[in-house]
Amino acid sequence: MKQTIYIYHTNDVHSHFEHWPQIARFLSERRREHRARNEAMLLFDVGDFLDRVHPITEATRGKANVELLNELGYDAVTIGNNEGITLDYHELDTLYERAQFPVVVANLFRRDGTRPSWALPYAVVQAAETFRVGLVGVTAPFRHFYESLGWSIAPPFEMLQAAVAEVKQQADCVVVLSHLGVNEDEKIAATIPDVDIILGSHTHHVFPEGKQVNGALLCAAGKYGQYVGVVKLEVEDGRLVRTSAAVVDVATLPRSEEVERHLRRFEQESLARLEAERIAELKDDLPLNWFAPSPLAHLLASALREWCQADIGMVNAGVLLEPLSKGTVTKKDVHRICPHPLNPCKVKLRGAELKEIMLEANTERMKHLRFKGFGFRGEVMGEMVYDGVAIETELEEDGAWHIRRITINGEPLDPERLYEVATTDMFAIGHFYPQIQRAAEKTYYMPEFLRDVLAWKLAQ
C-alpha cells in the first residue's frame, strides 16, 4: 500500500506577523486539500517563533504567539533561543501552559536536573494508520544565559543520540527539530545514522530543495516567515522509501483578512497594555543622535555603568531608535525606542584592549555599519557612547578625527590595568570587537534587557 505524508514547517518567524495572514491561509487551505485527498499532513515549528521586538509578544510575553500556533493546529514545536533566553524563568516555564501541541526539546532541564513537565525529549505522532513519525527537538546551548535564568542546558549531541535511539524503537521515521544551525545539522546527519529528516533553523538558511547528507534530508525555510517548508514522505507498506523537500515563497500567496483583523486586534490590545504602564515624567526632551554625542545615548551608557557597578559604561548609539519627548514615558515608549532582546554585560578588559576598541569604534566604517542579528533589531551601529570616559580628538590632514588622549574617570588610561566595562551582550557574543568576545571574565545580567535598565534610570 502506497501513502503520501506531507510535513509543513516554519522556523525563525521572530514575530514577523506581517506574513502570518498569508501563512495562515496557505496552511489552512492545504490542510483542507490533504484531508479531501485522504493524505496525512503534519505541521511543525523549529523555534524562534516569538521575538520580543514585537509589541504583541512583549505585552503577552509570548502567550499570544502560542495562541497563533494553536489556531493553525501545529502538531509539535521546539524552542529557539528567543523562547529560551529572552523570557525570565517563570515566563518560559508557563509559556506553553495552554499549548495544544507537544514541545520537544531534549537538552533543557531545571537546575536540579529534572525535565520541565512541558518539555519532552521526543514525541511520537501517528501520521497514518500504519506509519508513525518520531520527533526529537534540540536547541542551541547558550549555557551561561540559561544558567543565569535558572535553567540547565545540556550539550545537544549527547541528548540527541540518546533520544533518537529511544524514539527509533517506536517510530517508522525520525525527524529532528533542530534549533542548532546548518553546520550542526550537517554534523547530526553525518554522525547519527537513524535520523531521516532534519528540519533546521537558527542560522536562517534556506534549502529550496533540501540537502541530502549521509542519507538524511536537511530542510530549512529561512527567516521571518518568508517561506514555508514542505517535505513529502512517500511510504510503501509502512516503510519510508523516498523523501523530497521544497519551500513556498509566502510573498506570492493571498492573505487571510480574518487573520489580519485578529492580529490588528491583538496589537491594539498589546499597545494599550504597554501604554498603561507609566515609567517616568520627563521635564525636558531627551534628544538622540546616532553619529554625535546626545543626552539619551549618554543616559543609557550611564545607566549601564551604574546597573553593572562598573568602571565605565559603553554602548552604541544605534541601539536607541528614537528620542524621548518631555512628558509621560510609558513601557510602550521604551519598547518602541529600544526593542532589542539585549542584556547588560560586564566584561574585564586591559587598558590596551580598551584603547583598541575605542579606536575601532571611532572609525566611520564602524559608526555606519549596518547589520542584523546578535539580538540587535536596529538599523546601524552608530557612535560609541561612554560614561566615565573622556576622549580628546584632533582633526588631521585626512579630514578625519583621530583620538589623541583617553582618560578613565579623570586619570590617563593605563594599558596594563584591568577595567570593568559595562556594555551589551551583543559585543560579548558578536564578532564586532574580538577583545570583548574572547575576554575571560564576563558577567551577564538577566533577565533584564537594555530597555529595563533605561526604564530604571528614567524612573530615578
Q: What is shown here, in short?
A:
With 460 residues, the chain is α/β, with parallel strands linked by helices. Helix content is 32%, strand content 29%. It contains 16 helices and 25 strands.
Radius of gyration: 24 Å
Strand content: 25-35%
Low-confidence stretches: none
Overall form: elongated
Largest sheet descriptor: 6 strands, mixed
Helix content class: 25-40%
Number of helices: 16
User: If strands are numbered along the chain, what order do they take across the biggest sheet?
Assistant: 7-8-10-11-13-12
Q: Tell me the total number of β-strands.
A: 25
Spatial separation of the terminal alpha carbons: 71 Å
Mean pLDDT: 96
* Helix-and-strand structural type: alpha/beta
Structural account:
This protein is an alpha/beta fold. The chain is 32% helix and 29% strand. Helix 9 crosses helix 11 and helix 10 crosses helix 16. The radius of gyration is 24 Å and the shape is elongated.
What's the SSE blueprint?
Blueprint: E1 2-10, H1 20-36, E2 40-45, H2 55-60, H3 63-71, E3 76-77, H4 81-85, H5 89-95, E4 103-104, E5 108-110, E6 119-120, E7 122-128, E8 131-139, H6 143-149, E9 151-153, H7 156-168, E10 173-179, H8 182-191, E11 197-199, E12 211-213, E13 216-219, E14 227-236, E15 239-249, H9 257-275, E16 278-282, H10 295-308, E17 312-316, E18 327-330, H11 331-337, E19 344-350, H12 351-361, H13 364-367, E20 384-387, E21 389-395, E22 401-408, E23 411-412, E24 418-424, H14 425-429, H15 434-437, E25 442-444, H16 450-459
Parallel strand pairs: 1-2, 2-3, 4-6, 8-10, 10-11, 11-13, 17-24
Antiparallel strand pairs: 1-14, 5-9, 7-8, 12-13, 14-15, 16-18, 17-20, 19-24, 19-25, 21-22, 22-23
